[in-house]
């Protein structure tokens, strides 16, 4: 079983983009906190916030919504992988 479920990166250094891509390939959620609005890290991350948004409490307010979407997506993925039309047809016969 996966041990890491989420990586939080506090940086604006685009050199970390490859690490975020690797995390996403391994189905690890990615969150970036940094001040570059159009930075490469924010384009790769699942969720990104500026320091201003963190200080103002926006990140804290949105956490339930973000985590809820992640959980919904996980449930849908499990359903996709568990559905076998041939097996379902056999069960129905």
Automatic annotation (TrEMBL):
<protein>
    <recommendedName>
        <fullName>NYN domain-containing protein</fullName>
    </recommendedName>
</protein>
């Amino acid at each position: 079983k996966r041990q890491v479920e989420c990586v939080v990166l506090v940086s604006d250094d685009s050199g970390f983009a490859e690490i975020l891509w690797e995390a996403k390939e391994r189905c690890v959620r990615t969150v970036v906190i940094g001040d570059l609005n159009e930075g490469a890290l924010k384009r790769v991350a699942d969720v990104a916030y500026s320091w201003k948004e963190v200080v103002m409490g926006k990140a804290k307010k949105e956490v339930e919504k973000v985590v809820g979407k992640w959980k919904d997506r996980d449930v849908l993925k499990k359903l996709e992988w568990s559905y076998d039309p041939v097996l379902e047809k056999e069960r129905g016969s």
